Amino acid sequence: MAASPTPSEATTSSLDPGLPISREDVEAFFEAYTMAAKRALKGAHRPGNPQLFAVHHKHPERTATLPIVIDNAANVEAAVAWSIRHSREGHNVYIETRTIAEDVRRLSVPGARGSAKDTRAVFAFVVDRDGDAGKAGRALALEPTFIFETSPGNFQEWFVLSQAIPPDSAEALGKRFKAAAGADSATGTVTQPYRIPGLPNLATATKLARGRSPVEPCRLIKADSPTYTAEQLEATLPPLPEKEVKRKRTNGAAVPVPLSFLRCWPSPRPSSMASARHTSKSAPI
Question: H helices of 23-166, where?
Fold first, then answer.
């Protein structure tokens, strides 16, 4: 993969008039993202697809989703174009660190992003360092795989897995990421969509009220660092505080599940009409 542009290069090369869009950053990210996802999901039976999510910065009811077939180069190119187009139309565009069912009609709420129970596999964790909200958090004893500056002074650090894990194991690790980093609540959340470098960060009314600029660039800082096994993360992240363990204790300790388990995951089944109104509570950031 070509070397990632520096933040200064990202602000001066190939920017669309009126919006801080860097196609180089978007393409470099998608190249790194799809490569990492393919490695992590290699050998899995029906691993599902990652997906994009777009929400209009002024009209949050205007949303769109797009599954990404990571093994299809033309589909990935279409995802890049889709992301840029929706950004130009006033949407904030996000991407997830999980996969969902290939057939989106089988989601618990067809046409939506899918809830936690629709998750097939998780291949990365993100620490969301929201400095302007006082949620920059603490440094971890791990080198991030990717780093993005989502707006001045705010960063997202990705920790990519070398082998994807099931959602239950990912949820347990995500809680440890959140506790260790002490950053924004979006940290380590399996269903959370995260920003894409190279696309604009369009402030919502809430962010404008706390002094944010209407439009900020999201910059790619690095995308070429090591990946981790779930066992390495387990060994490095501190355990949950005792009060957290007591409040959220489950049957037995949560441990990483090997890839062989991916081969026998059942396909998600549609829920009843009574539960069809419930979707993921993870909000874009």
Answer: 23-41, 73-88
Q: What secondary structure does DSSP assign to 180-237, as a single string? A: HH---TTTT-TT-EEE-TTSEEEPPHHHHHTT--SEEE-EEEE-----B-HHHHHHHS
Give the pTM: 0.79
Torsions phi, psi for 70 (to 5 deg): -70, -20
Q: Give which of 49, 80, 94 is closest to 189, Cα–Cα.
A: 94
Quote the CA–CA distance of 141 and 201 in Å, as a whole number: 29
Q: How far is CA 16 from the centre of its chain?
A: 25
Shortest CA distance to 128 belongs to which of 107, 150, 160, 110?
A: 150
d(CA 70, CA 41): 10
pLDDT in tens, 175-228: 999 999 999 889 999 999 999 999 999 999 988 998 889 999 999 999 988 999
Type of residue at 159: F
Residues contacting 221, CB < 8 A, separation 6+: 4, 7, 147, 148, 149, 155, 197
Question: Are residues 52 and 93 in contact, defined by beta-carbon separation less than 8 angstroms?
Answer: yes
Q: How far is CA 37 from CA 12, 24, 177, 273, in A?
A: 30, 20, 20, 33
What would the two tokens of residue 177 be? Answer: 């990421």
Give the number of C-alpha atoms closer than 13 A to the C-alpha of residue 84, restricted to the C-beta side: 20
Q: CA of 42: how far to CAs of 47, 178, 239, 256, in Å? A: 9, 27, 29, 17
> Do 186 and 139 form a contact (C-beta atoms < 8 A)?
no
Q: Where are the domains of the chain?
A: 12-265
How many Cβ atoms are within 10 Å of 220's Cβ, its own excluded? 25
CATH number given to 12-265: 3.30.70.1790
